[in-house]
Specification:
Distance between the termini of chain B: 51 Å
Strand order of the largest sheet of chain A: 4-3-6-7
Largest sheet of chain B: 6 strands, mixed
CATH architecture of chain A: Sandwich
CATH class of chain A: Mainly Beta
Number of strands of chain B: 9
Order of helices and strands of chain B: HHEEEEEEEEE
Number of helices of chain A: 0
CATH topology of chain A: Immunoglobulin-like
Number of domains of chain A: 1
Largest interface: A-B, 29 and 34 residues
CATH class of the largest domain in chain B: Mainly Beta
Oligomer: heterodimer
Strand content of chain A: over 45%
Structural class of chain A: mainly beta
Radius of gyration of chain A: 16 Å
CATH superfamily of chain A: Immunoglobulins
């Protein structure tokens, strides 16, 4: 099954703008490929990504089949307080992959 | 003797016919792939994303390798200049390509809590093409940028 990995800087000062790196395993089947019988392999991608910081949505992305397999997304967050970053990817079939990361601000 | 001269000329004719057939086939394949990409489709996607607003060049940047060896996974970074305050921030950056089977790549939505409007990801490019980005600001203005990536191995898994 899909596994998500999150990387945050080891130490974060209050007010610092930090890079949040995310990587999730997923084939991101584009719907453009054909199998050995020349049938189109149906599209199955993660089409949506959301990042919540202490329950508040801070970043969101709509993804198309042009995003590579095992989507990597890196973006920035202003570290204002310690807490939890929650990451949610939504599949074409409606299922979701969730991951959280603890952020400690000093 | 005439047989001896006839033979090579026959095979030459055959060769030519085969070559012509091959070339015709190649052209046909090219045509098919060209039809799959609707010209201007990427522009329609961008216009729709920003609600038909006119874009002016500047403020947003697309950073990609000039030569992407593997089109299956091409690193791409988009960024827009902005103080990222509640009053003045980047709302979204929309990314499309002009020669993939489907033009859409991604739309990124920012909030002032990002501190910086910059996203890195990896994208698929079926061949050498332009990547275009539109940045939507909180004041309603729209800014555009483009970058070309040369692809040596296409990334459509075909």
């Amino acid at each position: 099954m899909s596994t998500a990995r999150i990387r945050l800087p080891a130490s974060v000062k209050k007010g610092e703008v930090i890079e949040v790196k995310t990587l999730v395993t997923h084939t991101m089947e584009s719907g453009q490929r054909r199998d050995a019988q020349n049938n189109v392999i149906p599209r199955k991608i993660l089409n949506k990504f959301v990042c919540n910081y202490n329950g508040k949505e801070v970043f969101k992305a709509d993804l198309a089949p042009a995003i590579s397999a095992n989507p990597y997304l890196a973006f920035f967050v202003a570290a204002t307080e310690s807490g939890t970053l929650e990451f949610v990817w939504t599949d074409d079939d409606g299922s979701t992959i969730k991951e959280t990361a603890k952020l400690t601000v000093t | 003797m005439s047989f001896a001269t006839e033979q090579p000329s026959l095979s030459r004719r055959r060769l030519l016919a085969v070559a012509a057939g091959l070339a015709g086939g190649l052209i046909a394949v090219r045509d098919a792939s060209a039809q799959a990409v609707q010209p201007g489709a990427h522009q329609q996607v961008l216009d729709k994303a920003v609600g038909g607003k006119k874009a002016q060049p500047g403020k947003v940047r697309v950073r990609m390798p000039e030569i992407a060896e593997n089109g299956n996974t091409v690193p791409m970074t988009v960024m827009a200049e902005s103080p990222m305050t509640a009053a003045d921030h980047v709302k979204a950056i929309h990314v499309v390509t002009d020669n993939n089977p489907r033009p859409e790549v991604a739309s990124f939505y920012f909030t002032p809590a990002n501190g910086k409007a910059e996203v890195s990801t990896r994208i698929r490019l079926s061949q050498t093409m332009n990547v275009l980005a539109y940045a939507e600001m909180s004041d309603g203005s729209v800014w555009s940028a483009r970058a070309e990536a040369k692809v040596t191995i296409g990334g459509c898994g075909g």
